[in-house]
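Q: For a teaching session next week I want to show students how multiple molecules come together into a single three-dimensional assembly. I've collected the sequence lines for a complex. Could you give me the predicted structure tokens for the whole thing so I can convert them for display?
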Amino acid sequence: MLLLTACAIQAKQLAVVSDKENSTGNVKTADLASILSGKTKTWSDGRPVKIVLRDPNSPEMELVFRRVLNMTADQVRTLMQSRPGLIVVADSDEAILRFVSATRGAIGIVDLYSLTKDVAVIKIDGKLPFDAGYLLKGN
Amino acid sequence: MKKTLHQVILGWVMALVVSTPYFAAAATPEPKSESFPLTTKSTTARQLANQALAIYVDHVQQPEAIALLRKAIVADPQFAMAHELLAQISLDSAEQVAEQQKAFATRRHASPVERTAIEWYQNAAEHKMIPAITSMNEVVHQYPHDKLVVWMSSWWLMTQTQYSRALAIYENSQITDSPGLLNNMAYNHAYLRQYDEAINLMAKYAASLPGDPNPEDSYAEILRLAGRYDQSIEHYRAALKIDPEFYSSKFGIADTYSLMGNQRQARKEYDKAFSKFHLEEVQRIMWETREATTYVREGDFKGADRAFQAIADAAHSRHISQVEADSYRQMAIYQPDARRASQLLDKADAALLDGKNAMKAAIMQESAQVLRARVELAVRTGDRQVVRTALDRLDQLAQTANDQMIDAAFHGAAAALSFSEGNYDKAIEHLEEDQDNPISVELLVDAYQKNGDAAAARRTAASLAERNDPTVEQALVVPAFRKCYQDASCNSGLKNVSLPQQASRTFP
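A: Of course. Below is the structure for the complete assembly, covering every listed component.
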């Protein structure tokens, strides 16, 4: 007995996070694509962008690359091999959150339900996680 | 704090890998080794709360735990965390609402971490989900190895369908001696369809509580989720052999007969169980709804109307607005007569307008479900104006509510419209966001087929045929879908994928 009528499907939402001093509250999908592909190297205040993500092979990161960059895992592999050090890979969401909270200019992507108050959540196209039509959501 | 930045090759990419202790957390206090505090000026109240948690978390003795918490708040009416725990485990919706308000009102008498926990639940009740999540994680960060904290967080995450995150918190806690947490985690695996892991944990759970009926009962429920109905009934009977008063197993047998397709036997079992056991409100309504659903399963909609109307009338007289509305909504979705369905949805709206004895979040979620049903009905009758009006209202609700269930309702409704217009790409986009509702999943199978994506259609069809949740939506969709799925002459495009052996053996 558990006394919970649970749903069968686990909906995943991902949050784009930055350090709390970052004044960028919102990015367009195209801006995020430019950041993740290494084309945008600095924030508007001149601080260098530092990207930290989970294993690019994970289903969550595949969702990010597909939705934001319209790229397959193979294409992302090629991109990252051509630009070593572009993306810092962390072994847990907690590690990403610690890195982002302590690193000026850092941007990361984590499971929404791992979120802590030590980071700021960046809107995508004016939408926060849970908003209808939010980009980084999938089952 | 040790820094361990190191470079690795992750199979194929050169990148920096950051492990957990790379940087100290910026603001969150460090983890504590002691137990999560329960602040009260009354020693008696604290003892009662501790007793309640001991019997609830590990032994699922919910009514007894509720009674102890009620005594604790009498001993100290300013015991904020006891109010919160009662709000979370109460089986009475009016009490849930009242106790949440009292927990919030008395939080200044609690410690900082208890206040954070109360704010987490308060934010969740008000649909402020991002602050709710950050507060939950702050509590977990401070007490990662505390059984109560792991129970509170993993349970709440289960209600949010975040099974992987619940499992991660449990694994990080390194708690291995809590039967209650083993039970919960087995369910998390089962909801992720990881049945081997679920059964493995369930075996450990049973070994940790020899002579207790609940492990057998939980085992039975997990087997039913896996479609192994006969084995499920065996385990429910084993639980009743240990304790003939273990009502959940008696009702579990009834639920299982219903899913097997034997509605007459199911109703016999429900009736025996209702006459033998006195249930708390939430449980009684849940099983009355399941009994009403037996009529839907056999296509006896008049019988279903009588049963659901009785639930709605009882809810109305007891001022439980969300239950009343949900009963009318469920009646509406199986009605062959569109006019009657529309009248029932009007009644659901009226009950929601009354809005008594329910959290704001529950009223909003129910409103979304009613609007979704209205859109689907209007699509059926071709009433474009109602489709547009209801869909716009649902869109507004989804934009402001920050709620997965409301979001899913919007996608289900929008998909019904897109599908009816032949816009299958758009329909698929929406339907993929509502894969918990069998009505949407069935439409998704059709949309994939119409779009020529046979592999996705087959994969989705196989998963739909495996659904074993005792809801009206499942009753309306899955049995008929399975029948077609197993019939070689019906929809041959879906026949190249065989069902899992365990499930196919037991289909009615």
